[in-house]
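Task: encode each sequence below as structure tokens.

Item 1
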Amino acid sequence: MSIRLTTIRLRSAAILPGAPPLRVFQISDLHLGAVLDRVRLEKVVELAREARPDLVAITGDTLDARVGLDAYIPLLSSLNAPLGKFA
């Protein structure tokens, strides 16, 4: 599995002209335990830190059904995002 960072710029008429950009870092398909181990998760977290997001969204297929999340919580909790972290 490769870890990729893709930047997508969205424009909307609902956003006021001159408003600062909103940086959202979305993480998906981690499959922690089955596909992604702690070392690779550290790389994902490092990419997130470098992106300096305003908001972090962790969506879908986060955890393998047979693996506990306890080993990964401290690393995911270390992410900083002024507008919050959501999963």
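Item 2
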Amino acid sequence: MKLRFRSNSLRLRVNRREVESLSGGSVLREQVHFPGDTQLAYLLAKSSVSSPEVHFAQGVIRVAIPSDHVENWASSDDIGMYFELPANGSFLKVAVEKDLECNEAPVEERDPDAYSRAGKNC
């Protein structure tokens, strides 16, 4: 799972294996370790929530997506799920997307579980 921030937006990209795990009920988790014995963790979960939720506390970003949204998305050709949440007088834009193969990356950086770009307008 990849995490990207830009302006007031958060984007998570997941490969085929991760989409299958998420759809099956697993929580996806990654973490980045920093000098000084600190870390940033981020989690993506299918949940019983009625609408998407994002929380940040104690160095952990938690993204919860309603179960039906995850299951519909996982079984479709849709690239992403997109939503906005109110955040301190503004909005946090959140994207959870299927990670497409990168044909121009060095071979060692290509993800064999990435989704094919064939027929995708991205």
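Check on item 2: The radius of gyration is 15 Å. The first strand starts at residue 2 and ends at 6.
End of task.
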